[in-house]
Amino acid sequence: MARLTENAITALARMGYAARGTVYLLVGGLAALAAIGQGGQTTGSRGAIAQLLTAPLGDFLLATLALGLAGYAIWRCIQAIGDTDQHGLSPKGLTIRAGLLVSAMTHLFLAFFAISLIFTLSSSSGGGSEGFASWLMTQPLGRWLVGAVGILMIGAGLAHGLKGARATFDEHFDMPPETQQWAYPICRFGLVIRGVVFVVAGNFFVIAAYHLNPREAGGLAEVFDTFGSQRFGAWLIGFVAIGLLAFGIYSLLEAIYRRVDPPS
After folding, report:
1. Consecutive 10-residue runs of the chain (264 residues): their mean pLDDT?
2. What DSSP letter does each residue of 122-191 carry, written as one string?
3. Which residues of 8-25 are buried (b: 16+ CB within 10 A; e: fewer)?
4. Distance CA 174, CA 44 (A)
């Protein structure tokens, strides 16, 4: 029975990494098309998922993606609570584990969103970061919760940047050396760019908490809007889009090569 449980957790984790990779490939691909003026659009995770409605077998693709995202949320909870990566109980370790729980929550919301598209046939991408911040604001100490989420996102972004710069993800990979030669530069670039996106998005949450205005919270879509409003905005969007495509590839590689160690 224990072995069966471990196999099930491993399958959920690998499906989850693949689902996360698919979302980032969609986001990055659409943004890249927009940057070169080929009819794409900059959008967040929800907008990218909604695009699947227009694809052949869209409902099936959405259901599969929702299952993978839910599996990823469960795996993130297991990582945080079971401390599968041995972060420990130090302030740094607890911060990382709290970030894993936030990641679990956001991906679970994405899974629910994908399922809702199947039954409502609505391509609206409303809600998202603003909806999450609004919900947090209604909770006890809501303002501080929104600020805490922002700080966790900034911390996660910095951690992603360091993880990419130092290639510390290597300790969790069982990847053949010949694959590492081409895969590791992609992984490192993707992690650094995702880290930048997280830092910017985390600042949105901190600002929203400071102003007591959940409308100022933002995610990927708002990050793209911010970059697009800068000088050479199209180039910035294109650069970030390539980075998110690289992170999508990194996630798919995790689905294949990452060591998954369910707690005993």
Report:
1. 76 94 92 79 80 82 92 93 86 86 88 84 55 83 90 90 93 92 96 94 92 85 86 89 96 94 72
2. -----SHHHHHHHHHHTSTTHHHHHHHHHHHHHHHHHHHHHHHHHTGGGGGB---HHHHHHHHHHHHHHH
3. ebbebbbbbbbbbbbbbb
4. 31
